[in-house]
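Recap for those who missed Tuesday's class. We walked through two folding examples back to back. For each one, the amino acid string is listed first and its predicted structure tokens come directly after. Nothing is annotated here on purpose, so try labeling regions yourself before you check the end of the notes.
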Amino acid sequence: MANVGLQFQASAGDADPQSRPLLLLGQLHHLHRVPWSHVRGKLQPRVTEELWQAALSTLNPNPTDSCPLYLNYATVAALPCRVSRHNSPSAAHFITRLVRTCLPPGVHRCIVEDSWRFHGSGDDLRDGTPLSRCHLPGADVGRWSKSSSQHFLVVAVAPSPHQPPVPQMVCEQPEVFASACALARAFPLFTHRSGASRRLEKKTVTVEFFLVGQDNGPVEVSTLQEINKVGKELGIVPTIIRDEELKTRGFGGIYGVGKAALHPPALAVLSHTPDGATQTIAWVGKGIVYDTGGLSIKGKTTMPGMKRDCGGAAAVLGAFRAAIKQGFKDNLHAVFCLAENSVGPNATRPDDIHLLYSGKTVEINNTDAEGRLVLADGVSYACKDLGADIILDMATLTGAQGIATGKYHAAVLTNSAEWEAACVKAGRKCGDLVHPLVYCPELHFSEFTSAVADMKNSVADRDNSPSSCAGLFIASHIGFDWPGVWVHLDIAAPVHAGERATGFGVALLLALFGRASEDHLLNLVSPLGCEVDVEEGDMGRDSKRRRLV
């Protein structure tokens, strides 16, 4: 499905399912509330109202279920009716699975999931290569071309945000954001298959969302576009520090990791500084474009797939582009720590000692623990040079993350309990799920004790919460007593599904910082500035630490 363009449209009209196959998707109790008049034109003459109702009565999702309505040309599929408190209410992961397994074959196809209507382009929601990630609200409204000989329709189902407050029946608008992301991930962008190059026409999937309930009118949302040449597109000239200049200016972490590679390492920064900004936010992304492990080299089974070790930087790039396109009201800096961890005569050796940008020295005892070194330089730069109040770093940092929080939930480590809760809430609202790690530097940071330097770069005991320890290494370079907000997101496992990238992190950043956006939808999905607002008596020195954007 790689040669597919994705758009969102208010309506794609009616059609015989034999000429344009159809998939109807939603939670069962939502599907029961869809008026026959909404789907009749997309099912008749092949499916009658009686057959439609009979199909709904046979569905028994556990956790999902589907029923063919007319051969393989029309299908209705039910999402889980309930999810646990650690899952997204939208059941986003199941949406992606059902689209991949239930979408009928052919070039004219229709997927229907009841929710609210919106239109735009959705290529930005999906992954391409590891450096072309899932990208969320953009600015231009997409249009469905009726003249296209290859098109699809996707219509998505959730209750109206204006419906009466019935238990488990009121759907917040943020669920649509997560559902749209999940739908888009079913259609990856990247392929190098030889047959794909011979296809002359790119297929287009048109997504149509419906409300069920009292208000089923169209709802305005933004478009989503793929990230390309972000700096040029946004009119921002990037700051780039590269190769020997890194060494001269004291970026020993980035330089030490990438100095053996053919392509030199770099620190790149995109900065957005609007008038009237009240806070400075820095997103720092780990951009290890390939990770051999260095001289502590990976094995033949663990090295394949390391092209995705730049997933954190890719997510930051996609989110930055989308955030600025939607109007971001605070200062926002995207900091990219770029290097290839390679093997060569100049490669960093175990026992080497590097001086990092923070002024601290690090004894290298594992060259395959390189991500924390580049991020340490990145967060130090954000603190010292950019004057950030809030620093968030995102990285495919540790394999232990997948053991600690699993392959669907990213791990969050932060010096703020309020921001820890906000990250979890944002994950549930956007579908990029998050779960906390233990934050306890007084018990864990001693794992990095060195006899000859300020610290080592890898732990002494790998059984002592290694993902937490890795995050604490990064935090130590701005200081555990730093008064600002520091958030670390380890996305090593959810950044991919099998051999495909998922685009994880873009939706999460947009939702988490949605209160700083001029976009109405992002305001709705953001947990910040709501339940976790600063208390009246906590203003003053701690206000920037606790205040949400």
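Example two. Treat it independently of the first, because the proteins are unrelated.
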Amino acid sequence: MILEESPDGEGEGDDGFLLQPADEGSVRKGCSPLVQTQRSRLQNHRARINQQINKEMRMRTGAENLFKATTNHRVKETVALELSYVNSNLQLLKEELQELNSSVDVYQNESEGICVPMIPLGLKETKDLDLATPLRAIRTPSRNEVGLDLLMEYYNQLYFLDIRFFSPKRNLGVLFHWYDSLTGVPSHQRTLAFEKGSVLFNIGALYTQIGARQDRGTRIGIDCAIEAFQRAAGAFNYLKENFSNAPSLDMSVASLCMLVRLMTAQVQECVFEQLTLSGTPREPLSQMRLAQEAARVEDVYSLVYQTMVQPPVRDYVPFSWTTMVNVKAKHFRGLSHYYAAIALCDGPSVADSEIPKYEKAFLQFHVTVPEGPSLPVLLQDSEERRRLAKAHLRKAMMNHEEALRLHAVCRILRKMDLLQEVVSLAHRRSLAKYSEIDHEDDFFETAEAPDVHPKTHQKPEIKTPSFSQVKVTDIFHRLGPLSVFSAKNQWWLKGPIHLTRGEGGFGFTLRGDSPVLIAAVIPGGRAEAAGLKEGDYIVSVNGEPCKWGKHSEVVALLTGVGEEGVDIEVVTPQREEPLGLVDKKVTTLSSVGLSRSDKENGGQVTLPGAFLGWNKKAKRGQGLKQLQPFSPSTDNTPASR
């Protein structure tokens, strides 16, 4: 699998969601950050601000160190003045970045229909790594399904990279740099777990952008948006459960919990939009169902708002996000009261035979029993239903007016005409209905309408990423099988060693595949005299690599030599466990003949289903030790294990 950059910024298939498998042997492409599309311009601007923030933070660190070290009073005054200037610049840069992160309109769909905007996340940015060129293109994935495939494949490649190069006993020295998606503050660590967690975060963020870009005026668009937001929630939840002590705020437990709730709330909003695609239903029970769905959306958005205003999340979540979530909560609460009023005043009087069915529905409809007559009287008395409907409409108008007021308070949201248009339309509709059912001779005081009980027919599903379904090939495959040629094993190369055939053959026996193992060395034989030992792996025969060679292939190479002998290269592992763990038939190389193993291992590398070995719930001693969670430290280096 080769990953390289594409000359176009967005790639094809921006509007669809279903992932299409790439042709075998195709080239995976990222997007070029130099292409000036609307989204790439935003990302380039964010990248420049992140670099400036990084520069200012380095200056601040140097000034703070100088302030602590110097004893000269005049120098201290100069440094203190410089620190205030740097801190002021940092604050301005963070505010500018926050405004860019709040540019949710960049990722919205461009259809002419009126849809409530969703909240997508910007991707975490990073610095180039000094790795193989095929791995660099993933730093700028295209904002579509191709980019998702690219990130998933890179995430799986990190499994091979971790096993092969990152030893649990020593530091490789590779520094992974990532910028916080919400604040732009840079973080860097030498542990590969940070790289994997950041890539996983970007997978979830890219799903949010795909979901926000769907045309939710069609059923297919809504279904794709639901799928994308559920997968985003699954990525953030998987990261929350398997990642601890994150060095950046956007990957903290509190932030990830907020993001999971935000994604499920947007799924619930899409479920409500599904029911309104064909317009407002005329049947009272269907209208009551709409009211309860709207109340459910209000309920989940209220939970998200409560999460956003709690410390520490409120300190770095964009104010426009918090305001938008609050506006949506008020808006959908108003919609729940509006549809409750429609169900009460537009429906015909209930027949005696249908009273039990409607009584059962109304008993589960309100949070508290409404004031006034009993349910049978309410269902059959149109005037009583009209009065309760007026009370619901009053609450609907009050909530929509509050939503409009909150919208006007936020400077960034004031630029989003679409959100204001949706709320204003709902407010005018409630006002028109109130004027329609209001009578001039209504001298009674309207009773307080109880809230609608939240209920949904489709609960959001948190879909965990299925990494095992994305097949990749180890790009360092030529180095040899991971069972031997990995960072956890220590070995040294010997050879070429020249062997000639004696009376008893070469004097050693073989077993296994990929690579073939010297199972035993015959005392006094040619192999022992040449320095071969039990447990050596044959990696080359007469200059031909055979790390992935099968048993029969290596045997054929050895038996095909003449009296001139053969040159072989072997690696000798430094073992901590005794040999003999695998019970296989042994092949003896002699002048008489060869007997081969009936069972041969083809040398295939099977990728496990779960790649995050730093699960805090995993039992000690299981999984890969080098993937254990890192602890925060002042010097941004992984903690000792």
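Answers for example two:
Confidence is low (pLDDT under 50) at residues 1-38, 577-641.
The longest strand covers residues 490-499.
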